[in-house]
Design brief:
Elements (H helix, E strand, L loop, with lengths): L6 H4 L2 E3 L9 E6 L5 E6 L2 H11 L11 E3 L10
Parallel strand pairs: 1-4
Antiparallel strand pairs: 1-2, 2-3
């Protein structure tokens, strides 16, 4: 499914590009109070914990709320 070009900037959760040699993917979360945070996540469990802690109520399957640059749900496992 193709999303409008502004979806990446509008989504409150943004996951960086997949890099096979990188241990982490950078995750940016815009908190409900408007404060942005960025933290590295090594796997889906860390990602979910970060989002649920920093932005409760986020639907991880809604592309309007969560934007993956590429390869959604994939982690290197390094």
């Amino acid at each position: 499914m193709s999303l409008p070009p502004d979806t990446a900037s509008a989504a409150p959760v943004h996951i960086s590009a997949y890099e096979p040699e990188a241990r982490f993917r950078q995750v940016r979360v815009l908190r409900h109070d408007g404060t942005p945070i960025a933290e590295p996540c090594a796997n889906q469990t860390e990602f979910e914990a970060l989002v649920f802690q920093q932005r409760p109520g986020t639907d991880l399957h809604d592309p309007a709320q969560v934007y993956w640059v590429d390869r959604p749900g994939e982690w290197t496992g390094i």
